[in-house]
Amino acid sequence: MANINDVSRLANVSKATVSRVLSGSRGVKEESRLAVMQAVEALQYKPSMIAQSLSTQSTGCIGVICAAENINQSTGYLHALEKELRLNQKYLLLRFATDAASLSHSVDEIGRGLCDAMIVIGARFALPALPDNVITIDCLDADSGRSIHFDRSFATETACQYVLQQGRRQIALINFENSDAAGQILQGYHLALEKFLLPYDRRLVHSGDQALTQLLAQNVPFNALLVPDDATAQDALRQLAQLGRNVPQAVMVFSLDSTLPPGASAIPAIAWPLETLAQRAMALLAGQFSANTGEPVRGQLSLPA
Amino acid sequence: MANINDVSRLANVSKATVSRVLSGSRGVKEESRLAVMQAVEALQYKPSMIAQSLSTQSTGCIGVICAAENINQSTGYLHALEKELRLNQKYLLLRFATDAASLSHSVDEIGRGLCDAMIVIGARFALPALPDNVITIDCLDADSGRSIHFDRSFATETACQYVLQQGRRQIALINFENSDAAGQILQGYHLALEKFLLPYDRRLVHSGDQALTQLLAQNVPFNALLVPDDATAQDALRQLAQLGRNVPQAVMVFSLDSTLPPGASAIPAIAWPLETLAQRAMALLAGQFSANTGEPVRGQLSLPA
DNA sequence: TTGTACGCGTTATCAA
DNA sequence: TTGATAACGCGTACAA
């Protein structure tokens, strides 16, 4: 592989001039510029990113650490982030983490020069102490300065409103287990009920692995079912089908967290605006922390095609 | 951030000795070794990966380019590959590509020193010319030396066998559009029918966007439906539900390509052995091309929980 | 407008 | 067993 010396030799100029031409700086005689371009073409010269990185002390790599429980949920993020990163001439280094320890390990490891910054996504566990160049998306943490949160309360309210519009007044809710997100969801649920003057029936609200089973055991009729994410939705759809309860005729299942593009979901859902999210992440990475109002991101109603 | 000079100074040894200690080489006096270790600890010194890369001419980064149409299908691969790469102290640089041009572009870009090698996954378009350090998984290409293929014929045969065991003798098939994979699927379908002495009814076989619509328009009864992947399966499930045809009672839908872990799929499917696949990819990357017999990978029957 | 020389942080070589 | 020094390939002050 040809290096900058080979090019400078062939073009009869110095390394510096070659570098100047390639970085598009002015103040280079057209003649030299041409000579350099020709030499570059002839030698098929491509600057080495490693050497560039050593010089500039920046690799252009952004570590993305997926800490979401159901990894299928993260594909949407990855796609959106990769697209946005590429637009900014940056690279996406992918990692998965399942707990605070593995997250810490990854941050240490790829932070040793390989990555300029990192993004942690969807962690449902308590976060360890993180360096300044790490931002979080939809994670369990209080530091809103470097983090992007979701407005799950609003999402749940929107969901309730939608199913009510569809004539469903008995809204069951399957929730996450005690976490910040769970609290928000419950809050949105309460708000919606109040707003529409509906009674709160605790027998319709459950959480945890056995949530649906518990719900069905109550023998309380319901014609809408809010679930916290797509994985839970799949599960619910399967169980309801086995019981012969038609979806959506008998029960309308609604997912409060879908990363599928609008229309791709088989059920109504709240979809998070992935492009916007990715752009906000970029802004945060660029150090524009001031632009981060800490305002949680609001999802959009997404209906099946 | 402290560098090797700071350490050598504090430990009263030369850079070379520090490097020796950290790379675990023998031939270092215990006394010096201790001094170095202490200095490292005191300064919280972590060697810079970039500088290491410049020296060794290798970053440890492996580019993974997802070229699959439905990106949700690729999450399984990503997870398996990341795990295996981490085991080998390597890093996963993620890219998406939609066609030959964008693939070429990515290969050029991240091949400029950033990545030691690359893996292309699931491309359904004709591949451009690729450097030696690129391997492919489930792509449209003939070069079996650096590529891993799937045995879709066997998968389809297995699928037919399963649905037949479940008492379904009218097996409809939705196929990819004319590609190598489509040919294999058709072959497996024919083989299974022959084996079980069933007649071939062309009205049961369709491909393309309107496949399911065409199939239903034929008005030929069927009680099993083979679809090429999970996305098509979702689509089929939705359409069948709208027509009031119960799944799996009336029609058993079977996905010929699921990357979900066994038991996670809502329908019976052929799942590819992701760990094995990742390991084979590592072997190929390690240059053990001889170990690649070109033998296509066989999937496993995966039933809903 | 151009070239020289040095810094980036590490590994490898070679002589001591 | 150790240290000085040369790569590795590029960016960039600074001088000309």
TrEMBL record, chains A, B:
Keywords of this entry: DNA-binding, Transcription, Transcription regulation
InterPro entries assigned to the protein according to its UniProt record, in alphabetical order: HTH_LacI, LacI/GalR-like_sensor, Lambda_DNA-bd_dom_sf, Peripla_BP_I
Tree of life domain: Bacteria
SMART domains linked: HTH_LACI
A GO term for molecular function: DNA binding
Domain HTH lacI-type residue range list: 2-56
Residues in the signal sequence: none
Pfam families given in the database record: LacI, Peripla_BP_3
Gene3D superfamilies to which the protein is assigned, alphabetical: 3.40.50.2300, lambda repressor-like DNA-binding domains
Xref: PANTHER family: HTH-TYPE TRANSCRIPTIONAL REGULATOR ASCG (PTHR30146:SF67), LACI-RELATED TRANSCRIPTIONAL REPRESSOR (PTHR30146)
Name assigned to this protein: LacI family DNA-binding transcriptional regulator
